TrEMBL record:
Residues 317-366 form the DUF3696 domain. The lineage of its organism: Bacteria, Bacillati, Actinomycetota, Actinomycetes, Pseudonocardiales. This is DUF3696 domain-containing protein. Pfam families: AAA_21, DUF3696. Coiled coil: none annotated. InterPro entries: ATPase_AAA_core, Bact_Antivir_Def_Nuclease, DUF3696, P-loop_NTPase, P-loop_UCP034888. Residues 25-306 form the ATPase AAA-type core domain.
Length: 368
């Protein structure tokens, strides 16, 4: 498990140390560096091979993140001990510390490692069960890609969740073994039934189907609607049902396939969901942590925060296993991170201004 991420001269940060727990929630104002944290981890993953090659380094553009060139990622007000600035990402796990420092090159999209850098063992950080779902995910479509290599062999859902439908099609009969991930109202432990049950928290009566489109390299997702286990309606294409259903499916599958040693990075699991659905996603992401994965969630949702607090109160995750980080701009314009504690009762130790206080602020004005 990653216990601390330290980035230097990387995008939003001149230097930042971010403590990470089994469940970490990143919140705060827009453009304060929350996604930058996830991108730094995704960049290491994306560069996993390149970092071990001769003349290798940080691969800025790939399947997970497209960061541009050196000048895009070098923090504007970089700090440098040497004439040439370096961009560094360091990771401390429960057993080791690793650090990668790359030389800045304005136009390069492969930032070469400084030869003295400690070549850490990335496979111990990214074992099996890595998922990274960006805020810009798959939208409803008639078909989705079918890649045996990515979805089946590597088990990766895609940074936009674009391989989720193929994954679900192939692994639909695999059981969800950890009981904490199992939905109490699911028909069985099968992945498809479990995904359907969690989807039903968002849209009661929804049924899912994922199948191949014959003679093509494509797969298709369809929805039916019914009650009491009866699928009574026609099959609908994703384009003809609510946007949120397709949008949340990768989040649900990523969590249901959580495993010990896994790492799940999620941007805005709440996107396009109604409030109760957002709370359900908090419970599911916490269940993924309970099942042994490390989960880092970027969110703007009070319901995700409160859902996570409830998971602590209910004992699904321990209060020592959750960290809240609130990103805000300090007086000098740089990001500062405030980290309120969560107690065993789910209570939060402090509520800095701007930290999920909008509801109260509005209520005060309404009651004024
Ligand atoms: N090279 C850079 N130098 C300084 N700041 C940067 C650089 N690249 C991005 N940023 C800052 O990072 C912000 C985006 O950070 P991001 O992590 O995406 O924010 P969010 O908190 O909304 O997820 C930009 O608005 C900008 O302020
Ligand atoms: Mg963001």
């Amino acid at each position: 498990m990653i216990e601390q991420l330290h980035v230097t001269n990387f995008k939003a940060f001149a230097s930042a140390k971010i403590a990470l727990a089994p469940y970490t929630l990143l919140s705060g104002l827009n453009s304060t560096g929350k996604s930058t944290v996830l991108q730094a981890i995704a960049l290491l993953r994306q560069s996993q091979e390149a970092l071990t090659e001769h003349d290798g380094g940080l691969l800025l553009n790939g399947d997970l993140v497209e960061l541009g060139t050196g000048q895009d990622v070098l923090h504007e007000n970089y700090v440098s001990e040497h004439a040439e600035p370096t961009i560094s990402i360091s990771v401390r796990t429960d057993s080791d510390s690793y650090s990668w420092s790359a030389r800045y090159e304005r136009e390069a999209d492969l930032l070469k490692l400084i030869s003295s850098a400690d070549l850490g063992n990335l496979s111990s950080i990214f074992g099996t069960g890595f998922q990274y779902l960006r805020a810009d995910r798959i939208t409803p479509a008639v078909t989705y890609p079918r890649s045996h290599d990515i979805a089946i062999r590597r088990g990766f859902l895609g940074a936009r969740g674009e391989h989720t439908i193929n994954y679900l099609r192939h692994f639909q009969d695999e059981p969800v073994k950890d009981r904490r991930l199992q939905h109490p109202h699911a028909r069985s432990r099968r992945l498809l039934d479990q995904a359907e049950a969690w989807m039903q928290d968002i849209c009661p009566g929804v049924n899912l189907q994922a199948d191949a489109v014959e003679s093509t390299d494509l797969v298709r997702l369809s929805f039916r609607f019914g009650t009491a286990g009866l699928s009574s309606s026609n099959r609908y294409r994703p384009t003809n049902v609510g946007f949120g259903l397709t949008y949340v499916l990768p989040v649900i599958v990523a969590c249901l396939t959580a495993r010990p040693g896994g790492l799940i990075l999620l941007e805005n699991p709440e996107a396009h969901l109604h409030p109760r659905g957002q709370t359900a996603m908090a419970a599911l992401t916490c269940a993924a942590t309970a099942a042994g994965a490390q989960v880092i969630v970027e969110t703007h949702s009070d319901h995700v925060l409160n859902g996570a607090r409830l998971s602590v109160k209910r004992g699904l995750i321990h209060s020592n296993d959750i960290l809240l980080h609130f990103f805000r701009r300090g007086d000098n314009g740089a990001t500062e991170i405030v980290s309120p504690d969560v107690g065993p009762d789910g209570m939060v130790s402090e509520w800095p201004e701007g930290f999920f206080d909008e509801w109260d602020r509005q209520l005060d004005q309404l009651l004024d």
